[in-house]
């Protein structure tokens, strides 16, 4: 069908643009008349061209097919993933659907597996802040909380810390949803609710693995805290 072909072309063009502009997320938000599409770049959502009204349903359906989701299920949220390659970049895409009064909203989280950890100065910290931050995370004991809005660089900051402190003498374990960066010498664990691995249960199991450093991607409930 023409709508299906148009939907495929539109999705490809938006994903290509998102990767080129280093967007962290792509939002497909249904409205009363049409589909609003936005890219999250440097923590801010920015509108991009909308698909023609007649192919909007096909765009959502195509995204669900790519992520191996049930296209007939529109009342329950669903989560899926897919792998993309753009030039020399391997992109891990996490797909989340959410029912709204105007239809299903879809958010794509783009994770560049080829991206290497940055230094603190590359993250934008001024030298004084970077020096004090490094003094804190090199302490032998304690807890370090990194907070901020979506897309502000929390996980990127934490992975820079992990990269800086990892040695062969340390057992470093991360618990994440999803695992955004993979580092040699670090044991990464993915939250999997269907298998019974939540942040709370995963953290309890990690503490029995004789860890030196534990990185928890999110604190979602009192038990994890």
Highlighted features:
2 domains, alpha+beta, Bacterial type II secretion system protein E domain-containing protein, ATP-binding, ATP hydrolysis activity, globular, 27% helix, 28% strand, 5 helices, Rossmann fold
Question: What would you say this structure looks like, in words?
Answer:
- This protein is of the alpha+beta class.
- It folds into 2 domains: 1-112, Beta-Lactamase (2-Layer Sandwich), CATH 3.30.450.90; 120-216, 3-Layer(aba) Sandwich (Rossmann fold).
- The protein is 27% helix and 28% strand.
- The protein has helices at residues 2-20, 56-66, 127-137, 154-165, 199-206, and strands at 25-31, 34-41, 44-47, 78-86, 89-100, 103-112, 172-176, 187-190, 213-216.
- It has a 6-stranded antiparallel β-sheet, covered by helices on one side. A 3-stranded parallel β-sheet has the order 8-7-9, covered by helices on one side.
- Strand 1 (25-31) and strand 2 (34-41) form a beta hairpin.
- The radius of gyration is 20 Å and the shape is globular.
- GO terms for molecular function: ATP binding; ATP hydrolysis activity.
- Keywords: ATP-binding, Nucleotide-binding.
- This is Bacterial type II secretion system protein E domain-containing protein.
- Residues 207-221 form the Bacterial type II secretion system protein E domain.
- InterPro entries: P-loop_NTPase (IPR027417), T2SS/T4SS_dom (IPR001482).
Summarize the helices and strands and which ones pair or pack.
Layout: H1 2-20, E1 25-31, E2 34-41, E3 44-47, H2 56-66, E4 78-86, E5 89-100, E6 103-112, H3 127-137, H4 154-165, E7 172-176, E8 187-190, H5 199-206, E9 213-216
Parallel strand pairs: 7-8, 7-9
Antiparallel strand pairs: 1-2, 1-6, 2-3, 4-5, 5-6
Helix pairs in contact: 1-2
